[in-house]
């Protein structure tokens, strides 16, 4: 069924409100936030939901960078070369991940 006419309000404001409320329940936030050690955003706060999504995206990108660096470290060590710089990079990525988990990326600095 096409929900478009109902959501647009083609059948009146009361029907639109009911339809959007019914459809919104399908998109509730996941219960798995706690499993990942993250605070579950409140449904009524779109900023909290957006911040959580940004946090998860940033954590995924940092994880990808850490995996890439670990592969480069292994290759470097197998060639018998010094991997100190790659180890420093991995440590910096761990620090970045910790900052993202704490929400530090959301704190805007004073622009003055």
Strand-residue proportion: under 5%
Gap between N and C termini: 53 Å
Which structural class do you get from the secondary structure elements? Answer: mainly alpha
Major beta sheet, specifics? none
**Using only CA atoms, what is the Rg?**
22 Å
Mean pLDDT across every amino acid position: 79
Low-confidence spans: pLDDT under 50, at least 5 residues?
A: 108-112
Number of helices: 4
N-to-C order of helices and strands? HHHH
How many DSSP-defined strands?
A: 0
The coarse silhouette is elongated
- What number of structural domains do the residues give? 2
Range of helix content: 55-70%
Provide the fold topology:
Blueprint: H1 4-8, H2 13-24, H3 46-78, H4 84-101
Helix pairs in contact: 3-4
Report on this model:
The protein has helices spanning 4-8, 13-24, 46-78, 84-101. It has 112 residues and is mainly α. It has 2 domains: 1-40, no CATH class; 46-107. The longest helix has 33 residues, at 46-78. Residues 108-112 have low confidence and may be disordered.
Short description:
This protein is mainly alpha-helical and 112 residues long. Helices cover 61% and strands 0% of the residues. It folds into two domains: 40 residues, no CATH class; 62 residues.
Task: Supply the key terms.
single chain, 112 residues, mainly alpha, 2 domains, elongated, disordered C terminus
């Amino acid at each position: 069924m096409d929900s478009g006419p109902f959501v647009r309000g083609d059948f009146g404001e009361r029907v639109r409100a009911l339809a959007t409320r019914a459809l919104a329940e399908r998109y509730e936030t996941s219960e798995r936030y706690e499993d990942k050690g993250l605070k579950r955003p409140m449904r009524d706060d779109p900023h909290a939901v957006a911040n959580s999504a940004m946090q998860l995206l940033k954590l995924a990108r940092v994880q990808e960078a850490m995996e890439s660096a670990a592969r480069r470290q292994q290759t470097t060590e197998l060639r018998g070369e010094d991997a100190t710089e790659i180890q420093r990079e991995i440590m910096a990525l761990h620090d970045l991940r910790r900052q993202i988990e704490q929400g530090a990326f959301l704190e805007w600095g004073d622009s003055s």
